[in-house]
Design goal:
Blueprint lengths: L8 H11 L5 H14 L3 H6 L2 H4 L9 E4 L10 E4 L2 H14 L19 H14 L9 H12 L4 H8 L4 H7 L4 H8 L3
Antiparallel strand pairs: 1-2
Length: 188
Amino acid sequence: MAQAKTLTERELKKVLEYLRHRKHGFRDRVMLLMTVWSGMRVGEVASLRVRDVMDSDARVKDEVHLDRTQTKGKHARTVFLPKKLRDELGRYLIAISPADRKRPVFATQRNSAFSANTLAQHFFYLYKRAGLEGASSHSGRRTFITNLANKGVSVRVLASLAGHRSISTTQAYIDVNDEMKRRAVELI
C-alpha cells in the first residue's frame, strides 16, 4: 500500500476551501487541522473529549495529554498545540458550547463520537471530494512531520512529537521533494 500523500500548502488550502461550503465544514476543518498542525492520528482526534482539550476555566489547553487508551501504541503521550490550532479549537468549542466535559470534541451527525475507522473513511472522502488524489487520513500527520523536517527540526524531536518509539519510523514519514533538494544544495 502506498504512503499517504503529503499535502502542499496549495492542496491544504484547496481542501480547507472545500470544507467552507459543507454542512459540518467548521468541525471538519478543525479535525483536519488537528492532524496537520499537531500531528495527531485520526484515532487520537476521534478519541478526544472536551476535558482533554479544555481546562476548568474553559480555555484551550496548550498540551493534550493522551492516555494509553487513546493512542495507537498504547503508550500515553503529550501532544503540543500551536497557538493557531488553539485559536481554531477555541472558536470551535465556543460554537458547540459543550456543557458536558465528557462529551466528544468532534461528534457525528448523530451526536456520538467518531470511531477511528469512521473518521479515517470520512477524511478519505473529504480529500477525494476536494479533488486530492492519494490523500488519506494519514496525510495530515505526514504533512506535519514533513513540514517540521523542512524547517530543520531534528528527527529525534519529530519522533517524540509524533509519539514514535523509533526514529526510523519517523524518517519514513518525511517526504523529500525537489524544493527541499534545491534548498539543500544552496547550503554549500
